[in-house]
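User: Predict the complex.
Assistant: Input components as received:
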Amino acid sequence: MATNRTFTMIKPDAVENGHIGGILDKINAAGFRIVAMKMTRLSTQKAGEFYAVHSARPFYGELVEFMSSGHIVAAILEKTNAVEDFRKLIGATNPANAEEGTIRKQYAESIGRNAVHGSDSDENAQIEGDFFFSGLEKF
Ligand code: CMP
């Protein structure tokens, strides 16, 4: 049974390029409620921890360097079928394969600098949300 929450980050490329507002507009228009949100910056250590599941992949070093290179906006989002619907809204990991109307089609630059993160399962949505937010910060 799907839970109703997912976790997202607006990544350093999209923050630097002034796309926070445009991305939040699309998230709101798609019917997601923002349960928690903060702008912050990950240290290389924290970015490494967040993406530890990818530590054996060849792009891990590049991913950690990029995700700690600037500010990010982290948020927990609520909607029926949140994980799956949010992944549809953001589009394919590689923007070259993302469908028209998706966030990555509009804002992503490349597979590495791909504007947003979205959780891939209910279990990871919970883990990733807890990585950034305490119970007092979720509304
Ligand atoms: P994200 O959804 O945040 O989860 C893992 C990230 O790894 C992914 O988005 C991409 O930004 C990144 N990634 C995946 N494949 C590659 C790749 N081949 N080269 C660089 N980064 C990648």
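Residues 54, 59, 62-63, 93, 111-112, 114, 117 surround adenosine-3',5'-cyclic-monophosphate (CB under 6 Å).
Let me know if you want any component modeled separately.
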